[in-house]
Amino acid sequence: MKHNITTLCTTIALALLTACTLDYPPQNTMVDETVYKNEKTSQAALMGAYTRLSVFLAGAPNDQNNYTNTWYAHLVAEVGTDNINVHNTSSRLRPMELCEYTTDEHDGFIRDIYSHGYNAIDYANNIISGVEEFGRYDAATMRCHIAEAKFIRAYEYFTLLCIYGDGALTGNDNGLGLVMRLTPYDGYKPEDIQSRQTVGDVYTQIIKDLTEAVPDLPQTEYEPARRFRASATAARALLSRVYLYKGTYTNNTEELNQAASYARQVLQSGVTFNPAYNDHRANIFPSNVTNTVENSTTYPDPVNYATELILFQPSRISTNAFPCGWNSVFSKTNFCAADELIASYLPGDLRGYGETDDYLIQQGSNTSNANLKASMKYDNGGCYDDVQFIRLSEIKLTLAEVLARTSRTISDEALQHLNDIRCKPFPDDQKPEALTAADFATVDDFIAEILAERNRELAMEGHYRWDLIRTGRDLRVKGLPDNRKILPIPEYEVRISDGAILQNSGF
User: Fold this and answer.
1) How far apart, in whole angstroms, are the C-alpha atoms of residue 168 and residue 200?
2) Smallest Cα–Cα separation from 299: which of 282, 322, 278?
């Protein structure tokens, strides 16, 4: 978390993006003025910030350049839900499933997630500050780089807020949120220790970053294969998620209407929904199973990327250098797909379990826990997987849910979005009958079906725990109060702040 850019990923990005000779100050450090003065080096630093976002959300390499032994935010939203069964022998995951944390967990994964998040935020802060102060290149490009960094920072703060915010998903704007750092970190100074701002204050900053970013981000969509960088559509999609999460628990009509408004803007963008029944496996989560050819391991590159992608981490842009994804999903070493998740799918639903390559739940590794099932959204034991951060199916289900909550009716529009998602993963001659308003006794039954479909569609993509909390439902451990469903602040942070940083109320 140093003020100067010193990381390996930035060095790699610089090597890839510019062929010019660069003079490095001592200790391989590029001072800010050198980095942010011109477009190429600023963009290289920005790629480092995207890398840290992916590290935080989808995995971080250890010394062996794999992602097996580290914690990341996508996993937090699945552990402790009925989507996965954690093995009793998994000392790292079992405490989170049980929501019981000892000193080992506080000093281990709880602190790791927290520090990865703030490390990623500091990268974004450096981009914003450095380009604003030292940038001497095209003004529109500088504004775009700053806007991308603000998007990255907003995504990181929002994810941390879901994990650690006391009341962030249950409508308590006065609850304890996060320590807010909006300038580059300049070393530990006891006199500068900050306390946690309120949940409401953190939400305000997240929304401010995203709304300020929208005008300066690309207004025309990248081609699907290039949607690993933020666009105006990505910012609007994240705003829709933010307002949905913030407004659900208290049924805040103003906030839910904002979620609907941004969802509609996304649906009117250049991102398109593909109704092809095999789109999930062919394009959204294409096979990444390794092949060994003449003693050389290869990873297949997709011919097409799904048109509904809004933001994702494509590992195969550099398959030999940047693995990402969940190694333990495919290998089932720590957990497996839960029977409850498998049972939620209709027969023939290609998102469920099947023995052919078309299905999204399969055997997975045949050498590790061969009788258990794995999600093929992360189908490679070497972690070479595309990781989806935002896609159009989420936005369609968000709009369906918000329309039902705010109007208290079962509208044709909401039904259409639900049926689009529900019927897509079946061949034409096997599709279920489209649902109609007559299929639901009440609007609440309709909302319950939207939420069930949301998990069938987005399972293992980092949503379910937060959906359960914001809608007042139980985690795998039944009867937990809401303030025990989030993670505690690492005790290390509480100790070094000398009481300025307070612990969450449930711990």
Assistant:
1) 8
2) 322
CB of 476 closer than 8 Å to CB of 81: yes
Q: How many Cβ atoms sit within 10 Å of the Cβ of residue 197?
A: 15
Residues 210, 241: Cα–Cα separation, whole Å: 12
- Going residue by residue through the chain, which has 507 residues, state the pLDDT in tens, using 9 for 90 and above: 333 344 434 443 433 333 333 333 334 345 888 999 999 999 999 999 998 998 899 875 443 444 434 567 888 999 999 999 999 988 888 999 999 999 999 999 899 999 999 999 999 999 999 999 999 999 999 999 999 999 999 999 999 999 999 999 999 999 999 999 999 988 777 778 899 999 999 999 999 999 999 999 999 999 998 999 999 999 999 999 999 999 999 999 999 999 999 999 999 998 999 999 999 999 999 876 655 555 555 666 666 789 999 999 887 655 455 666 677 888 898 899 999 999 999 999 999 999 899 999 999 888 888 999 999 998 877 777 888 999 999 999 999 999 999 999 999 999 999 999 999 999 999 999 999 999 999 999 999 999 999 999 999 999 999 999 999 999 999 999 999 999 999 999 999 898 899 999 999
Read off the amino acid at residue 350.
L
Kindly tell me the burial class for residue 333, based on how many C-beta atoms sit within 10 Å of its own C-beta (0-12, 13-18, 19 or more).
Answer: middle
For residue 250, count other CB atoms closer than 10 A to its CB: 14
Helix H or strand E segment including 374: strand 374-375
- Local structure of 324: helix, strand or coil: strand
Distance CA 218, CA 223 (A): 12
Q: Check if the beta carbon of residue 211 is closer than 8 Å to that of residue 131.
A: no
Dihedral sign, CA of 409, 172, 474, 363?
positive
Among candidate residues 376, 458, 380, 366, the one with its CA nearest the CA of residue 68: 380
Cα distance between residue 207 and residue 213, in whole Å: 10
Dihedral of CA atoms 189, 184, 200, 251 in degrees, nearest 10, equals -140
How far is the C-alpha of 182 from the C-alpha of 161, rounded, in Å?
15
- Those residues whose C-beta lies under 8 Å from the C-beta of residue 416, and which sit 6 or more positions away, are none
| 8 A C-beta contact, residue 475 and residue 96 | no
Where are any strands of DSSP class E within 129-179?
none
Identify the H or E element spanning 110: helix 109-134
Q: Enumerate residues 6+ apart whose C-beta is below 8 A from 359.
A: 281, 350, 351, 352, 353, 376
Q: Which residues contact 191 (CB under 8 A, 6 or more apart)?
A: none
Q: What residues have CB less than 8 Å from 439, skipping those under 6 apart?
A: none
What's the CA gap between 243 and 233, in Å, rounded? Answer: 15
What is the CA angle 182-180-209, rounded to 5? Answer: 55
